[in-house]
């Protein structure tokens, strides 16, 4: 059983940065692919970035070059470094691995 807890969200001005963390209660090294999703008000949840256990990463087109996903299996933690934030990045951000989901952390970007 794995529990995921996100943290690091908050209010930031456009152009600013935030670093999200996803702490797992269990060992995540056995989970091949870990992902960050987000859901903006009135919109469907969408994939932001994913990282495979070997380190390969994939990003949604609208965050490429601005967001960086990483994982530290020894610390059972995944991260999302978000730079050059835009108001349209405002959403609840969720971490996911297999069928496990966190409860989300709210990111609000003001213009």
Quick synopsis:
The protein is mainly β.
How would you describe this structure in keywords?
single chain, 111 residues, mainly beta, 7-stranded mixed beta sheet, 4-stranded antiparallel beta sheet
Topology:
Layout: E1 4-7, E2 10-13, E3 18-24, E4 33-39, E5 46-52, E6 57-59, E7 67-72, E8 77-82, E9 91-97, E10 100-101, E11 105-110
Parallel strand pairs: 2-11
Antiparallel strand pairs: 1-3, 3-8, 4-5, 4-9, 5-6, 7-8, 9-10, 9-11
Question: What is the mean predicted local confidence, pLDDT?
Answer: 94
Kindly estimate the percentage of residues that lie in beta strands according to DSSP.
over 45%
Oligomer: single chain
| Count of DSSP-assigned helices | 0
Content-based structural category: mainly beta
Taken from the alpha-carbon principal axes, the silhouette is globular
Question: What is the gyration radius calculated from CA atoms?
Answer: 13 Å
Distance between the termini: 40 Å
Counting DSSP E segments of at least 2 residues, the number of strands comes to 11
